[in-house]
Amino acid sequence: MPPILSIQNLRKAYSGGFEALKGVSLDIEEGEIIALLGPNGAGKTTLISTVCGITMPTSGTVSVAGFDILTDYRQARSLIGLVPQEIALEPFERVINTVRFSRGLFGKGRKDAAVEDILKRLSLWDKRDNQIRELSGGMKRRVLIAKALAHEPRVLFLDEPTAGVDVELRKDMWDIVEQLRADGVTTILTTHYIEEAEAIADRVGVINKGEILLVEDKDKLMARMGQKQLDVQLTTQLDAIPEALAGYDLALSQDGWTLVYSYDVNAERTGITKLLTDVANAGLQLRDVVTRQSSLEDIFVSLVHENAEVTV
Asked: pLDDT tens digits for 216-244?
């Protein structure tokens, strides 16, 4: 089955010579949830804006369900829903009319049952007759999602959907995305919240300086690049790592109470048993031993840092 969204060698350059996108290629399957991570200015919003027809590409191709975003603009755009970063809503309009209007913009006939279903799923039905100005910031975000879903798109873009939203509402948003997946909707979200990607994404893409550094299954990425860290907590404070342990890749915590040992989870031998034996032979007593897996945030920071070093 061909991908629902296919981006091939997409470039966006401005008149001053700045390249916001540098040959981005990405295929996304139907029903998939993919998270795009990247620092400010990485090109996330430019990529979304270009796919959605807000910004014209300099070169490259984008197709949605086989429709080219330039030559088949109306068909392609009708399949896309966009929830932008900025909350731009008519303050004196009522919630239900705002959603109905968005449906009409795409040439869809009035379908009260569909609008009611969207509003109920987003916990907006009780607010349907409220003016937008009467809603909280979180509820306004929900209205933006309702507007994006009003014309029943197959691909949904969420550009920083939970920025400025409290933790409880953020988790509600994740539930909404899972419900949409059950309906076959493909979701692409950009986020600064690493836990958001870890919680709901099937694949994670890292973008920096207009280039895709990688796109990989989230679990495979964690397994391939994830490191485990062993914290050997001591009963004695150290000023430096003992000479007897110099052969290990150890770090000493800032307070001097913990030896930190990083190792590859996929290696045949971790070296932990020998390390603990040598720690005891060095006359050190253990207070506790703690392991922790490196997070997606650690991996993300590492990738962006490596990319910055290469481009310097």
From this structure: 898 887 776 667 888 999 999 999 999 99
Cα-based angle 48, 19, 86 (whole degrees, multiple of 5): 35
- Report CA 161 to chain centroid distance, whole Å: 10
Ordered by start, the domain boundaries in the chain are 5-223, 227-293
Predicted confidence (pLDDT) per residue in 192-203, tens digit:
777 778 888 999
| CATH 3.40.720 correct for 227-293 | no
CATH code of the domain occupying 5-223: 3.40.50.300
Which pLDDT score is estimated for 312? 38
- Cα–Cα nearest to 284, from 262, 252, 307, 311: 252
Tokens 């045949």, residue? Answer: 268
CA distance 99 to 147: 5
- Per residue in 261-305, pLDDT tens? 987 766 667 788 889 999 999 999 999 998 877 666 777 777 777
How far apart CA 302 and CA 293 sit, in angstroms, is 15
